[in-house]
Amino acid sequence: MDLFSSIDLEPERKRMEELAAEIDRLNYEYYMNDRSLVSDFEFDRMLRELQDLERQYPELASPLSPTKRVGGEINKSFRQVQHRFPMLSLGNTYSIEEIEDFEARTRKLLDGKEFSYTCELKYDGVAIGLTYRHGLLQQAVTRGNGTVGDDITTNAKTIPSIPLRLRGEYPDDFEVRGEVVYPFDAFEAANRQREAEGEDPFANPRNAASGSLKLQDSAECAKRKLLFCMYFMMGPDDVILKPTHYERLEWARQMGFMVQPYIKECRNIDDIKAFIQHWDKARWELPFGIDGIVIKVNQTALWEQLGTTAKSPRWAIAYKFKAERVSTRLESISYQVGRTGVVTPVANLTPVWLGGTTVKRATLVNADFISKMDIRVGDHLLIEKGGEIIPKVTGIDPDQPRGGAAPTRYINVCPECGTPLVRADGEAGYYCPNSDGCHPQIVGRLEHFVSRKAMNIDTLGPERLELLYQAGLVRNVADIYQLERSQLIGLGADQSATIQDKSADALIKAIQQSREVPFERVVYALGIRYVGEVGGKKLARYFKDIDHLMNASEEELAQVEDVGDVTAHAVRQWFDRDEHRQIVERLRQYGLQMETRIEHGDNTLDGMTLVVSGVFSRFSRDEIKADIEHHGGKVSGSLSSKTTYLVAGEKMGPEKRKKAEKLGIPIISEDDYVALASGSQAQS
Ligand code: IVH
After folding, report:
1. pLDDT digits over 504-540, tens only?
2. What single-letter DSSP state applies at residue 596?
């Protein structure tokens, strides 16, 4: 007992509970019932009051407080956890005949019993499992390999449609499963913003949802506007759950889960087929993506009778929609030049409606793609959109007459600067070699350099870079570090990108701060062909500093994990150019990180030897051991007179405890350990 716990905090505790309950209720009404009961202003005020109280009295703050919706906690790592019930997948098919077979087989196996099916949407997202005990969210875990997944609880709490506390009646201990999806409008808004910031857009909502759940910064995840669609409920005590799947979902809705209303109880194969046909067309009117229909036997008692194969239950099946395909005329071909000089041919199409959007353009990949398919202006092309949001040209429509134009002659000079294009050995595409004189290459490199995953100078958007380039202030990435405040002010007068006093200060500050960006991202920022984020990391970690990287031979470069011959060649070529070496030298002089920093831990556990035993909630076994070493301590496998502390997790055996007591070794809890490692004293 410490001195402070005797002070009466009852009024504060009550107020905090009151606020939390009210905010929870308002959130529920807003997200589930589309009802705004108070003004945004009033809502923010309550939230802020609760945040302030939590800051003042952290010991009273609930881990399930609605303030967690906003995020803010940083995920250091995503702990791997075992699923209590394995996360099975479903058998799936693209064929209606196989659905008929499934239905006939199920009927036969159930041999005259009364039963029905539920048909529901197959959400195209990321499967997660949520554990609730006593109505409180305990844990959110990704599917992983079905047996072990990642603990993403902190990020899951930021998703408004995941209840933190359940309403009404609920089982005491159970698990809920569903899919986290990225609604189309939020997804498209996010992609527009990414493009404006010079980042690569997400390929599709599913990937984006999956990436969001693994964001380190939960506040960032909160901004993503993800949606959780609940589709399954299970418990150790299955009997207390309702006897049909349909009723279980109905019940879940009353507990506060987002259960999509598009579920239908079907009695026969005709009902099932009608449901499939309806959604095959209507799916594009939904606010989120689905990739098929799931058909389940409704009576849960029959699930056991039908059983499970090695991978999936026999009482359910997924019908997957085929990618939607349309045919449209190729009006013309234009050519885009990227930052590395690579030329991409783009099809300009007669606008056509496909999968919820109008498609006007699609990539034609490269010169080989065009010549292999013999694509000509005037042809009708087949365009497909599957899970990907970006439509793909898959061929020429065989049912339409050919366009009649002459074979496409690929351009041989750069459409931007007129320089003859070159084609490197073994490569499918052409590129413009005039890297220092070709406008989209120069500006593209600058945009890449400042982008979030590179140097993260976020105040320098494409418009401003263009301004700086036009004003002759920035020609290459090193010039950015030479900019002075006085040169910036007033730049671009009467344009939306005008730089004023305040923004000039912010810009200079962001540029200064970017000097702290780690070496691996500097390597990526240089914009060497084929060196992406991962490549930058691998190269930086392998060579440790710029000199070793810069002077490495092609053979040495190819030794690096994930770096193939083509990349090795591109890296070598890049550093072989004098202009590039000069840029690197200048960046070094401006103080950018040119070597990997060695991470130094502290020495809070200096001279101590710790033994760990049992299961921990914050760390895996390996993590706690690494943590001890990081803080300067030693880890030992067995207790001896040299042991300083025994860190006891859950389920530690009684022998260990006895032995420690016999040797007089203090036994500390996981929390004590965390306090000790952070520099405060442990209590035994
Ligand atoms: S039921 C044991 N229902 O599709 C049955 N799954 O391979 C559990 N999915 O792993 C799955 N929508 O990730 C079910 N309405 C739905 C679904 C759904 C999407 C996903 C889920 C599952 C995969 C099937």
Report:
1. 899 999 999 999 999 999 999 999 988 988 899 889 9
2. P
DSSP secondary structure, 262-304, as one string: --EEE-SHHHHHHHHHHHHHHGGGSSS-EEEEEEEESBTHHHH
Q: Which of 89, 286, 315, 317 to mutate to test the pocket of ligand 1 (most atoms within 8 A of CB)?
A: 89
Q: Tokens for 368, please give them.
A: 């080989």
Q: How many residues would you count in the chain?
A: 684
| CA nearest to 122, candidates 41, 206, 194 | 206
The secondary structure of 472-497, three-state, reads CCCCCHHHHHHCCHHHHCCCCCCCCC
Angle (CA) 43-46-50 rounded to 5° is 140
Report the C-alpha gap between 645 and 660 in whole angstroms: 9
Centre of ligand 1 to C-alpha 386, Å, is: 18
Q: What is the pLDDT of residues 38-85, one digit of tens each?
A: 998 999 999 999 999 999 999 999 999 999 998 888 888 889 999 999
Cα separation values, 371 from 326, 330, 395, 405, 410, Å: 22, 15, 12, 14, 9
Q: Which of 123, 249, 298, 306 to mutate to test the pocket of ligand 1 (most atoms within 8 A of CB)?
A: 123
pTM: 0.63
Q: Which of 347, 348, 342, 595 is nearest to 444 (CA)?
A: 342
Three-state secondary structure of 109-149 = HCCCCCCCEEEEEEECCEEEEEEEECCEEEEEEECCCCCEE
Amino acid found at 111? D
Query: Where does ligand 1 bind, in terms of residues with CB under 6 Å?
Result: 88-90, 120-123, 127, 179, 231-232, 294, 313, 316, 318
> For residue 416, how many other CB atoms are within 10 A of its CB?
18
pLDDT digits (tens, 9 = 90+) for 253-286: 999 999 999 999 999 999 999 999 999 888 888 9
**DSSP 8-state secondary structure symbol assigned to residue 514:** G
Rounded to the nearest angstrom, the distance between the alpha carbon of 460 and the centre of ligand 1 is 43
